[in-house]
Amino acid sequence: MKDYKIWNKLYKEACEVQNRRVISPFIEGGQVSAAILTKKGNIYTGICLDTASTLGICAERNAIFNMLTNGESQIDKIVCVMSNGNVGTPCGACRELIMQLDKDSKNIQVLIDKVEYKTVTMNKLMPDWWGTSRFDD
Predict the structure, then answer these.
(1) CA 107 to CA 129: how far, in whole Å?
(2) Cα–Cα distance between 81 and 131 in angstroms, integer?
């Protein structure tokens, strides 16, 4: 059975915060947005911020920091919404942070097709992740 209802909810919540905007002459935000569903069933969102000094942040990491601020660290599902409304996968920096969060991060589902609700696991995106053995220590 497909989890289409939760994927639709995550997509909708990510779209609600996207709102591309110029914040200052140095910062633009909201081109990409993300929503994550935690193992506890909570949803956290974030937008990307691009800055003139390369100190910006991706939407996925922004959502993750929101989750961490609220005391959670285990993700179940992730939706990344690009500026054209399509879904995409996290960038390399975001993938790395996601994998470092928890020993079970490899099982996190990422939506890659919002029409057919196709997903991929983080293990597929990071098949030979360098840190796996450190969770066993």
Answers:
(1) 13
(2) 28
